[in-house]
UniProtKB/TrEMBL annotation, chain C:
Domain called Transcription regulator PadR N-terminal: residue spans: 8-78
Superkingdom of origin organism: Bacteria
Organism, as annotated: Paractinoplanes ovalisporus
Protein name per the record: PadR family transcriptional regulator
High-level lineage: Bacteria, Bacillati, Actinomycetota, Actinomycetes, Micromonosporales
PANTHER family in alphabetical order: NEGATIVE TRANSCRIPTION REGULATOR PADR, TRANSCRIPTIONAL REGULATOR YQJI
């Protein structure tokens, strides 16, 4: 105990250098601790969110609830900017109908309770456009218990018409809290794993590096204490005590940081997920684990530092002075990660996400042992020549571990940043264009029969929005027998609109077109029944010419009949189509608010109509990208400071040698160049490695998420540029003056 | 002189008895049969040119280095048979050390440095610092108690080191070139203090130096040349 | 330095009686050999004759020594000349120690033994001087140091010679 206390005492150093060291280690531990605590809070956070979402779940999953103490519900899933809007149109069938969570009372017809975020958006700029999607009078706010998170856009509106739509748009519920089926986008998990590895690993490396700053000084100090009569275990305890200070201070600061982040949690959103600060609290066991991990990490790093070092009363002895760089074990993690990622790389259809995630993390970890091998290799391979490079390369080859200690973190951070940036870049390219270029950007599918004139009017309504071209058709699904549906379409529309759907030679009103073998007649599917029921029989016109569906419609549709309005038989004109579909194409000149305006127009036509954005309206990874940029900036900054400390302390250790060099007449530029090269070469070699592995990692992520593999130079080079700029700024800005000072022969006087 | 001691009563009055020490560092032979006998309370100088092995002799005699051959007896125990824990305890309680430099812990104040051996031995902080303060007062270092080593001159640092070597009431103080980094006036102050305090405390001193004027503070001296001590020279 | 010069230096500080002069001389300059009274008065007589001091008064008290001596300008000049003149460094080219080493080598005896014995003798002397120095005041320390430094120089020569004995033996016997 006394030894631990002594160690703690020794960690409060005298002098600026020592303080900086302790501060850096503390900062590293603090950031790591905050990240780990947040991680430990995720289960609680998700559980609480999940519990609230389950409590309000109203999905009856196809089961018909008989009328009684029931509520009629219709869902309106919409979108405003990057926010999903969860709308429910409700109407109670009896006073005892179940009340949705968070709603104090049933709203009257055309009245609604809105979530705070939705209310804010309605009051905000462009709120009028949003308002068209939900033109109900706001009479109150949904309480947190009815929301998945503080930023959720949600409303419950009273909608008497829903009564008449049961079975075709609305349904009955006798309670809230049905079973909720979870969903997760493919590859998302792997992306998050890669991100955590990218952000947390450097923190761990940094903690390790920070705890080892000045290890040489510490070892000398411990030798002095050993002389006074501490045995080898006491010395170890003292060193452990010393490492507890940054660990303890860091834990305290990390908890503080965690509380700050937690307080700001309401402002954060990832993947459309927002959380209430009250829901962020660590699982107690995990919180204890975090403390244990931090303490164990700092202790482990300390013990690791003593590997191969004997602290004796007469000094510190390193057992292996000659560095033995074997390659094979350094390649083990890389090989293991490639093995884990093999299905992804081979293009397997449904790769195991856990396995791939592990592979990605391991790939980043694989860098750590490779960097110290790479540096002496580069030092050996690069042609010699100048005296300064000779000096630098000898130093690099002899003590690569010391030269690369601070570089490894930068390499890991840059690798991850490259991988994620290229991936996000490729993902956003996909976002900008629909999968199939012939597909529209948005589709509105509304129930009900419409005259050709009404359909033209609907088209015109949407074309009011700048840059939008539209077309409206009536779509019937062909009856293919009791067991098969969706095998064919009957489409009614004017020539201009039909041309958006299919290709054919020419078109005039009165023409008809067929795809595939329709036979002499086709039968539509009746809309009024859940079981497939044959509806209207339509004869295929004799003059029908061949046509071919384009875009997504072409997939899975083998027969089709396309009719221009004037050839539509009267029987069909009376039948209700499966839906009336308005297809909207977005030109380059469309404003960013087009989607919102279109949704508003659609809601005015029918709030229950299905509005689908074929191309996502927003960047799903935008929030992740911001988090990544922020995280890597902080980490690179920390790394920069780490590198600085490391280089400065090595310079300090070698100042006598440098002074002697200067004294024997080495040109100052030679000495300074040798110092610069020593700092720069490991970084450049590491960055080259980072580019290679980062691009590979990016490709893996793209494959996982079924994004076409695509690399943009800026996504690859931006992190590299930032990383090298940091190093340059560090070396030139701080190292040069220091080197200049050291190389004055004045320094020799003090030796 | 040594022969006389042996004739008088064997090892009874001999506190530390090193015999026939051999030690090689790789191809370099540091000791080739050196002896050192120290009686309780006496000051013995070990002289010799640089590289003669005198420091190695001190390290072996203090149990800091294990000799390749030979025996080191201290108070009836064979030092080379003791494990690290026992030898460390010996360094804490029975031995004191004053080296040329680098022995003070720069992070601790002079007082804390002096109290360090007591603290390592499990003495409470208050008691340790009270005893250290008392000793520093007697040695005229009271005004330096709060200073850190970096703020002290070389001579002051060595005097603090002497105080630290004395604080546990050791029976032997090993001093290896204690004035090596000092000018002659500061060196004399340190020697004055070391010898006076050691005599008052009844501690023996093994004083390794190449400087005859420093060695002259001893009661008697031996000379080490080419790894052999003066007692053995005649045998050659 | 002669006794006469020492007296002049002492008198330049202040006029003194012969008895005080002897005491001051013994304190500062005599080392192990105090002056006889005879030496005091013969020296003073010589200084008077050369006009370097004057007797400036006779005290009224009875006693053996009533004369007070004062330095003259010529005396002051003499002191100045003494201090200005550097001492000729001893050449030490006639050394008994050296002679003994050569003697041992010429007769085939152990020169190393000669050196060892001498070293021990020197060290004993140095230990004695160190004890005196520790017991005495600053003036004692300075004079002891003077001796110690010289003995130290001898010792270093002894060490140095010891390492060269083999080569020296070859040369001497050739």
């Amino acid at each position: 105990m006394a030894e631990l206390a002594l160690g703690v005492r020794l960690a409060f150093p005298s002098g600026r250098r020592g303080w900086l060291r302790t501060a850096m280690a503390t900062a590293g531990v603090a950031i790591g601790a905050a990240a780990l605590l947040l991680g430990a809070s995720v289960p609680v956070m998700l559980d609480a969110r999940q519990a609230r979402m389950e409590a309000r779940a109203d999905s009856v999953a196809g089961v018909e609830v008989p009328p009684g103490e029931t509520l009629i519900v219709a869902g309106v899933e919409s979108q405003w900017g990057s926010n999903a809007v969860r709308g429910r149109l409700i109407w109670p069938e009896s006073p005892g109908a179940p009340l949705p969570p968070g709603v104090p009372a049933f709203p009257g017809d055309q009245q609604m309770y809105a979530s705070p975020a939705l209310r804010a958006a309605l009051a905000g700029p462009d709120g009028e456009t949003l308002r068209r999607q939900m033109p109900y009078e706001v009479i109150g706010t949904i309480a947190p218990s009815g929301l998945s998170g503080p930023h959720e856009y949600a409303y419950y509106a009273g909608y008497k018409r829903a009564e008449s739509l049961v079975g075709s748009g609305s349904w009955r519920v006798d309670r809230f809290g049905y079973v909720l089926e979870g969903e997760r986008g493919p590859g998302t998990y792997v992306v998050v794993a890669a991100m955590l590895a990218t952000l947390l690993l450097p923190v761990a490396i940094f903690i390790g590096a920070a705890l080892r700053f000045g290890a040489d000084t510490r070892d000398r100090r411990l030798a002095a204490i050993r002389l006074v009569g501490a045995d080898s275990r006491a010395v170890l305890r003292i060193a452990l005590g010393e490492s507890l200070v940054p660990a303890g201070l860091g834990l305290a600061a990390g908890t503080l940081l965690y509380l700050v982040v937690r307080g700001r949690a309401a402002d954060l959103r990832l993947f459309d997920v927002s959380v209430f600060p009250a829901d962020i609290r660590p699982v107690p066991v995990l919180a204890l684990l975090v403390v244990a991990v931090i303490v164990a990490l700092s202790a482990g790093m300390t013990l690791l530092g003593f590997r191969g070092v004997a602290v004796e009363p007469l000094g510190v002895f390193r057992r292996s002075t000659v560095w033995n760089g074997r390659l094979w074990w350094r390649l083990l993690p890389l090989a293991a990660s490639l093995w884990l990622l093999q299905p992804v790389l081979a293009g397997a259809a449904n790769p195991d996400e856990d396995r791939a995630g592990l592979g990605v993390v391991l790939l980043v970890i694989a860098l750590i042992p490779l960097v110290p091998y790479l540096v002496p290799l580069v030092a050996r391979v690069l042609p010699g020549g100048s005296a300064s490079w000779q000096l630098a390369s000898q130093q690099l080859r002899q003590n690569p571990a010391a030269s690369t200690r601070a570089v490894t973190g930068i390499v890991v951070a840059v690798t991850g940043a490259i991988a994620l940036h290229t991936f996000f870049g490729a993902a956003s390219v996909r976002r900008a264009t629909p999968d199939n270029p012939a597909d529209p950007a948005y589709v509105l599918q509304a129930p009900g029969r419409q005259t050709p004139a009404a359909m033209r009017e609907r088209t015109a309504t949407f074309e009011q929005v700048d840059g939008i071209r539209a077309g409206t058709v009536a779509k019937y699904i062909l009856y293919g027998g009791r067991d098969a549906t969706g095998t064919g379409y009957l489409v009614v529309g004017d020539c201009a609109t039909l041309r958006q759907i299919a290709t054919f030679d020419r078109c005039a009103d009165g023409d008809a077109f067929v795809q595939g073998d329709t036979g002499r007649t086709v039968t539509t599917l009746d809309t009024g029944h859940i079981e497939p029921t044959p509806g209207t029989k339509v004869a295929v016109p004799a003059g029908a010419r061949p046509a071919r569906f384009v875009g997504t419609d072409a997939q899975g549709v083998n027969v089709g009949l396309l009719l221009t309005p004037s050839i539509v038989p009267a029987s069909l004109a009376r039948a209700e189509p499966w839906f009336v579909e308005t297809r909207m194409y977005e030109g380059d000149d469309a404003p960013g608010t087009a989607a919102g305006q279109l949704r508003g127009l659609a809601a005015e036509i029918d709030p229950l109509a299905q509005f689908t954005a074929i191309a996502p309206e927003y960047d799903k990874f935008a929030s992740l990208r911001v988090a990544l940029n922020l995280g890597s900036a902080v980490i690179l900054l920390m790394m920069g400071v780490g590198l600085l400390l490391d280089v400065a302390s090595r310079l300090h250790d070698r100042r006598r040698l440098l002074g002697v060099l200067a004294a024997v007449g080495a040109r100052r530029s030679t000495v300074i160049w040798s110092v610069l090269l020593q700092a720069l070469v490991p970084v450049l070699a590491g960055l080259a490695l980072a580019i290679g592995v980062g691009v590979g990692l990016g490709a893996v992520l793209m494959r996982m998420s079924q994004v076409p593999v695509l690399f943009s130079a800026s996504a690859v080079l931006a992190p590299v540029a930032v990383g090298s700029a940091l190093v340059l700024a560090t070396t030139v800005g701080v190292l040069l003056p220091a080197a200049r000072r050291v190389t004055t022969t004045e320094e020799l006087r003090y030796e | 002189m040594t022969a006389g001691v042996r004739a008088e009563g064997g090892s009874m009055s001999t506190l530390l008895d090193a015999q026939g020490l051999h030690k090689a560092y790789g191809p370099t032979t540091a000791l080739a049969g050196a002896d050192l006998r120290v009686r309780a309370g006496e000051i013995v100088s070990v002289m010799g040119p640089s590289g003669s092995g005198k420091s190695t002799l001190l390290h072996c005699a203090a149990g800091l280095t294990r000799p390749d051959a030979g025996h080191v007896g201290y108070d009836g125990q064979e030092l080379s048979m003791l494990d690290d824990v026992r030898r460390s305890a010996l360094r804490r309680r029975e031995f004191g050390f004053v080296f040329q430099f680098g022995q003070l812990v720069p992070e601790l104040t002079a007082l804390q440095n002096v109290a360090l051996p007591l603290r390592l031995d499990g003495v409470s902080r208050r008691t340790a610092e009270r005893r250290a303060t008392g000793l520093m007062d007697r040695l005229g270092l009271a005004d330096k108690a709060r200073s850190r080593p970096g703020e002290l001159s070389g001579g002051q640092q060595q005097r603090v080191a002497v105080a630290r070597a004395l604080v546990t009431g050791p029976r032997v103080i090993f001093a290896d070139e204690p004035t090596g980094a000092l000018d002659s006036v500061a060196g004399e102050q340190v020697m004055e203090m070391l010898t006076t305090a050691a005599r008052e405390a009844g501690a023996a001193v093994v004083l390794v130096t190449h400087d005859a004027r420093v060695a002259a503070y001893a009661d008697r001296g031996i000379v080490v040349r080419d790894g052999r001590s003066s007692e053995r020279m005649g045998v050659r | 330095m002669t006794i006469a010069t020492a007296f002049l230096a002492l008198l330049e500080g202040q006029p003194q009686h012969g008895y005080d002069l002897k005491r001051a001389y013994d304190q500062h300059f005599a080392g192990d050999r105090p002056l006889h009274y005879g030496q005091v008065y013969t020296t003073l007589a010589k200084l008077l004759r050369h006009g370097l001091v004057t007797v400036d008064g006779v005290g009224g008290d009875s006693g053996p020594d009533r004369k007070r001596y004062t330095i003259t300008d010529a005396g002051v000049t003499d002191v100045q000349r003494w201090l200005d003149e550097p001492e000729k460094p001893d050449q030490y080219l006639q050394s008994d120690l050296y002679a003994k080493v050569i003697g041992a080598l010429l007769t085939g005896r152990s020169a190393a033994a000669v050196l060892d014995v001498q070293r021990e003798e020197h060290l004993v002397a140095m230990r004695e001087l160190t004890r005196r120095k520790q017991a005495g005041d600053l003036a004692d320390r300075i004079i002891c140091d003077h001796a110690l430094f010289h003995l130290d120089a001898d010792l270093r020569w002894l060490e140095h010679t010891a390492t060269l004995l083999d080569d020296l033996a070859v040369q001497v016997r050739r």
